[in-house]
Design brief:
The structure holds 2 protein chains of 2 kinds. By secondary structure, chain A is an alpha+beta fold. Chain A has 12 helices and 4 strands; from the N terminus they run H-H-H-H-H-H-H-H-H-E-E-E-H-H-E-H. In chain A, strands 2-1-4-3 form a 4-stranded antiparallel β-sheet. In chain A, strand 1 and strand 2 form a beta hairpin. The longest helix of chain A has 41 residues. Chain A starts with a helix and ends with a helix. Chain B folds into 2 domains: 211 residues, Rossmann fold, CATH 3.40.50.300; 71 residues, no CATH class. Helices cover 32% and strands 28% of the residues of chain B. Chain B has 10 helices and 13 strands. In chain B, the strands form 3 sheets. Chain B has a 6-stranded mixed β-sheet, sandwiched between helices. A 4-stranded antiparallel β-sheet of chain B has the order 11-12-10-13. Chain B has a 3-stranded antiparallel β-sheet with strand order 2-1-4, covered by helices on one side. In chain B, strand 11 and strand 12 form a beta hairpin. In chain B, helix 5 runs parallel beside helix 6. The two termini of chain B are 23 Å apart. Classes of the chains: A alpha+beta, B alpha/beta. At the A-B interface, helix 1, helix 5 and helix 6 of A face helix 2, strand 5 and helix 3 of B.
């Protein structure tokens, strides 16, 4: 039966393996390229734009353009793990039950000498096993790429979902969604369509509403220090969250608000009140006095980078627990369903 | 007394607002080749799918080899071979891959039997299923059922759409299996010729109901054609149930089922062919309710439902 389950998904899976290998090669080359260009841009003689001799103006401009172009390509590269694993998960899940019901081959499979439960579990095990074999190298590659390219902090909205082991977890979840939807709808095309919609919705909810509640937040109060340059005094913000932290909220909250995220309803009036204060750049002292008078302060709520794997584990576990529940429901349906 | 291979009590299956099968009570003894005959939509495939555990009844009971069929009962699944009407093989597979699937999912699988049969049918193991004709696909599907070596074969129109040669090959294959292994067979068919040549038990379904089930030999013995002039029709003798009546310009002919020995001189008595009996019962389902009213008494052996 294991061979059978593999044989049924072989062509689709091998196609994705071929695509995955190409994407891995591209991500490696892209990561190395961004890393090299960044080193050139930050090193001699351009210093990342922070002062270079005028004779290097054209050279540094070209370096800067090349660096920006290379970084811009990361918009596509950061999808390289999560997109194929999610799509493959949907396709394999849709084929687990819906594909066979649609082609009527369940009437052959379900009348051999193995139970439907064993048939289902074998197909699920082979599907998930092969999904993992593709997802793990992709996850490793994208995690390395994020680190090498410094395209975005790994604990950021664009970094977190697309690297670590999240692509594997979302792929497994997509597989489970498509399996249970397919068991109900019995049509692979509709199953993939509904599954795709679910896989847009759930990660969005996870990103906007769930993730922020999984680990405790830290806060830092931003202050603006006046800096005098020549005869001009400007405000320079200090006390910002660490560079690699995932900043979830940046805005005004009452003093003593704590580390909880303000709601939209709270956030807007506080912001509107603070907007009436003088500019923090041109009048830092007036700005600080105004905020004190309003009882507000400018804060950043964030998750520190050292929480990365804890958050990966927790969010990934939520996906896996959801997948286990959905597959359990599918198993019950398969045991009861007619052909 | 041996356990019937298929036994139903008040079995019914409804699809939405339409009944696929109603009030089906029958018992098919072990060791028989039973034919399930009926027009399209009579409920043959519905009954066979329930017997194969692919579908669950809306009401009533079905037992196969003494157990309630279920897709979760591996010991029973091992004892039953099922050939679906649509021959749903994996289209992209080669024949040898279908057999590998059969071997991997059936502990009693006999690969030698599978290879022998497929060789005899002139089909290569390397052929892809989707490159085979409908008849060849049916033969591969039947070979898979036979190589499983079940005690009971449930075949839904195994010879449908086959050319005469393929049909002959398939039926010969089936008969050899029955003769060599004593396998019980329940098959549905539209070909009345097949019923007489390979079957020894008859179940007639019409309009989602069982109208006759009995040993084929007894069915023939227990029916007679009674003919008389239409101008002076004598009274029907005792112990007959009229199944069908044909009124010609000069005479009237009743096909009757005998429940008592027939001692009659007023009617001309002839033995009907099996086709005439089956057609009479099939018409019974389509004729008016008045003709159905003639049929009431269940036979002590099989019965009229």
């Amino acid at each position: 039966m294991t061979w059978m389950a593999w044989r049924l998904q072989r062509s689709v899976y091998l196609f994705f393996v071929a695509v995955g290998l190409i994407l891995i090669a591209y991500a490696i080359l892209n990561g190395l390229h961004i890393e090299a260009v960044r080193h050139q841009w930050l090193g001699q003689p351009c210093h990342g734009g922070n002062g270079f001799a005028s004779k290097y103006q054209a050279f540094c401009q070209a370096q800067n353009n090349e660096y920006l172009n290379a970084v811009g390509s990361g918009v596509y590269v950061h999808w390289i793990a999560v997109l194929p694993t999610t799509v493959l998960g949907l396709l394999l899940g849709a084929n687990t039950v819906a594909g066979e019901v649609d082609r009527n081959t369940v009437r052959t499979a379900w009348t051999q000498s193995i139970t439907r439960g064993r048939w289902f579990m074998t197909k699920v095990a082979v599907g998930l096993g092969s999904l993992a074999l593709l997802a793990i190298p992709l996850c490793v590659t994208i995690s390395w790429w994020l680190s090498a390219s410094e395209w975005t902090p790994r604990l950021s909205t664009n970094g977190f979902t697309y690297a670590g082991w999240m692509p594997l977890a979302t792929g497994v979840f997509a597989f489970a969604v498509a399996t249970v939807v397919g068991t109900i709808l019995r049509r692979p095309g509709w199953t993939v369509a509904v599954g795709a919609a679910v896989m847009v919705l759930i990660p969005w909810v996870m990103q906007t509403d769930v993730r922020t509640n999984l680990v405790p937040l830290r806060s830092t109060t931003l202050s603006v220090s006046p800096i005098t340059k020549g005869d001009v005094t400007v405000g320079a913000p200090t006390g910002m969250a660490p560079a690699n932290a995932w900043v979830i909220f940046s805005g005004y909250v009452p003093v003593g608000h704590g580390n909880t995220l303000p709601t939209w309803g709270q956030e807007t009036p506080w912001l509107n009140a603070a907007m009436r204060c003088p500019s923090n750049v041109t009048s830092p002292n007036g700005y600080a006095a105004c905020l004190r008078k309003l009882g507000l302060h400018d804060v950043e709520l964030y998750v520190t980078d050292n929480r990365y794997w804890e958050l990966q584990f927790l969010e990934g576990s939520l996906y896996l627990a959801g997948a286990a529940l959905l597959l359990g429901a599918s198993l019950l349906l398969v045991r009861r369903t007619r052909s | 007394m041996t356990t019937p291979v298929v036994e139903t009590i008040g079995l019914a299956k409804r699809f939405g607002r339409k009944w696929g099968l109603r009030d089906c009570t029958l018992s098919i003894p072990s060791g028989k080749v039973a034919a399930l005959v009926g027009p399209n939509g009579a409920g043959k495939s519905t009954l066979l799918r329930m017997a194969a555990g692919l579908s669950r009844p809306t009401s009533g009971v079905i037992r196969v080899l003494g157990d309630v069929p279920s897709g979760n009962d591996a010991p029973l699944l091992k004892r039953v071979g099922y050939l679906d009407q649509e021959r749903p093989l994996y289209r992209g597979f080669r024949v040898e891959e279908m057999f590998r699937f059969g071997e991997g999912t059936n502990p009693t699988w006999n690969m030698t039997t599978a290879h022998t049969y497929i060789d005899q049918l002139g089909i290569s193991l390397r052929d892809r299923v989707n490159s085979l004709s409908g008849g060849q696909q049916a033969q591969v599907a039947l070979t898979m059922c036979l190589a499983k070596q079940p005690e009971l074969l449930i075949l839904d129109e195994p010879a449908a759409e086959l050319d005469p040669v393929a049909r002959e090959d398939l039926l010969r294959l089936l008969m050899r299996e029955v003769a060599e292994r004593g396998t019980s067979v329940v098959l549905s068919t539209h070909a009345l010729g097949d019923v007489g040549s390979i079957c020894d038990y008859l179940v007639i379904l019409s309009h989602s109901k069982v109208v006759l089930h009995d040993d084929l030999e007894f069915v023939v013995e227990s029916h007679r054609l009674l003919s008389a002039s239409s101008s002076s029709t004598p009274a029907l003798p005792d112990g007959v149930t009229v199944i069908d009546t044909r009124i010609g310009s000069r005479d009237v002919t009743h096909l009757v089922r005998l429940t008592l020995p027939l001692v009659e001189e007023a009617w001309g008595i002839t033995e009907p062919t099996l086709d005439e009996i089956i057609m009479a019962y099939l018409r019974l389902g389509t004729d008016s309710a008045s003709s159905q009213a003639h049929v009431s008494a269940p036979s002590p052996r099989g019965g009229i439902s």
